[in-house]
Amino acid sequence: MDDLLRLRVRRRLAVVVVAALLAVEAEGYNITKILAEHPEYSQFNKLLTETRLAGDINRRRTITVLVVANGDMGALAAGHHTLPTLRHILEMHILVDYYGAKKLHQLSRGDTASSSMFQESGSAPGTTGYVNITQHRGGRVSFTAEDAADSATPSSFVKSVKEIPYDLAVLQISKPLSSPEAEAPVAPPAPVNLTELLSKKYCKSFAGLLAANADVFSNINATKDNGLTLFCPVDAAVDAFMPKFKNLTAKGKAAILLYHAVPDYYSLQLLKSNSGKVSTLATASVAKKDYSYDVQNDRDTVTLDTRVNTAAVTATVKDDDPLAVYAITKFLQPKELFKVAEDLAPAPAPAGPKKKTNKKKTKPATTSAAAAPSDDDSAADSPDDASADDAADKAGPAPSVLASWAIAAATAAAAALALAAWRNLLL
Ligand SMILES: *[C@@H]1O[C@H](CO)[C@@H](O)[C@H](O)[C@H]1NC(C)=O
Ligand SMILES: *[C@@H]1O[C@H](CO)[C@@H](O)[C@H](O)[C@H]1NC(C)=O
Ligand SMILES: *[C@@H]1O[C@H](CO)[C@@H](O)[C@H](O)[C@H]1NC(C)=O
Ligand SMILES: *[C@@H]1O[C@H](CO)[C@@H](O)[C@H](O)[C@H]1NC(C)=O
Ligand SMILES: *[C@@H]1O[C@H](CO)[C@@H](O)[C@H](O)[C@H]1NC(C)=O
């Protein structure tokens, strides 16, 4: 096989594997959606969203969520807890093991202690954060936080709401678990002045662009307390991109700024150990447009690949849940506004539903006045042939969507094996 052909085949395989993993991803669950089918838990569901635990639940496998009906919410509904405290309390209701109703009633020793997400969060000292599950005579099952006061009455199992065997169980309990440690007041995060934060380190020019666009600024500013990861291009990158930026329409300018903001908190640790696709604030604000990119990592380097260009994270400006700000080497260019780098465009894919989407996405967006063909600058932005090929290879075994990192490692391993097998066959 000549080199060019080999290159194409490899890329095609990478595309196939990515598509396969994305299909698996689609079967992941969405706790918000599951509970929305049961209006009697709407208050609990709303709190899972407000505390951003819904996303954490969706990313996990082998988990049990203990929910409480609206009428039983008690102090949880009274509104005297701050959001960070509520988060701790709800974390206590998320057990990091699978307890379907059947397993619950078959507990071998009659009782067991399960670790909760509160215990895993590191905020729970000692053995607090464990939940005792006890099976009583007559079959009643009760749940008690390890640190509950002796006077606290346990919460009883009411019924199973949803079970996806060995992945997710949603059980209704009679009332919220009582845990002094989880209920302890947590100081709300100190207010952050975004402009000041960005200006102080690396990203003064980008801060200026945000400040000059009031709608964009208020959107990003309003997201920062609920989970935000902002990738800010360093000053030199903004300077280099300015001619192209000025060429964009007002809508394009707003979109490309929002494109740098991901509405979820990702610690650097998480970015370094996982790869996948992220949606951005532009995804949410521009109808029917994707505006996503791939986060990849190679040892300690995190890169963002838009398929037009690739930027690397060079420094952490802030990494403190719920806000992370990372300085990046380049201004991210979305495929919705700029021409996809020839080199990274997918090879003609095998027939299948993916094909059409890919084709559509490679067309320049209609909103763009500046969808100019690749010029010198973007050519310089594109990885060269060899590294693009590397990137395509790496994209094979690892990718999964960030929203469902916890997909059984077996899936990834199987895909990697398949990829290896195909390679041996074809190359
Ligand atoms: C989960 O479902 C809710 C309600 O249907 C929806 O608003 C939300 O976007 C979904 N989340 C994800 C990650 O798909
Ligand atoms: C939980 O179980 C452990 C061990 O079975 C026991 O020592 C502890 O007292 C229990 N705590 C509560 C609050 O029931
Ligand atoms: C944030 O900081 C900038 C620059 O230091 C300042 O101009 C602005 O007034 C501050 N905003 C608030 C709300 O304090
Ligand atoms: C940004 O958000 C903070 C709250 O975190 C608020 O106090 C401030 O007024 C907001 N600034 C602007 C310009 O909207
Ligand atoms: C700006 O847009 C015009 C018209 O589409 C194009 O010819 C020109 O190359 C663009 N300039 C830059 C710097 O992208």
Describe the structure.
With 427 residues, this protein is an alpha+beta fold. The protein has two domains: 38-183, FAS1 domain (Roll); 194-395, FAS1 domain, CATH 2.30.180.10. 41% of the residues lie in helices and 18% in strands. The chain is built from 20 helices and 14 strands. It has helices at 3-26, 31-36, 42-50, 53-59, 75-78, 83-92, 101-104, 117-121, 180-183, 194-200, 204-211, 214-223, 235-247, 250-258, 268-273, 281-285, 353-362, 376-381, 385-395, 409-426, and strands spanning 63-67, 94-95, 111-115, 130-135, 141-145, 155-164, 168-173, 228-233, 261-262, 276-278, 293-298, 301-305, 310-320, 323-328. The protein has a seven-stranded mixed β-sheet with strand order 2-1-7-6-5-4-3. A seven-stranded mixed β-sheet has the order 9-8-14-13-12-11-10. Strand 12 (301-305) and strand 13 (310-320) form a beta hairpin. Helix 10 (194-200) packs antiparallel against helix 11. The longest helix is centred in the N-terminal third of the chain and has 24 residues, at 3-26. The chain is elongated and about 75 Å long. The termini are close together. One 2-acetamido-2-deoxy-beta-D-glucopyranose binds at residues 191, 218, 221, 225.
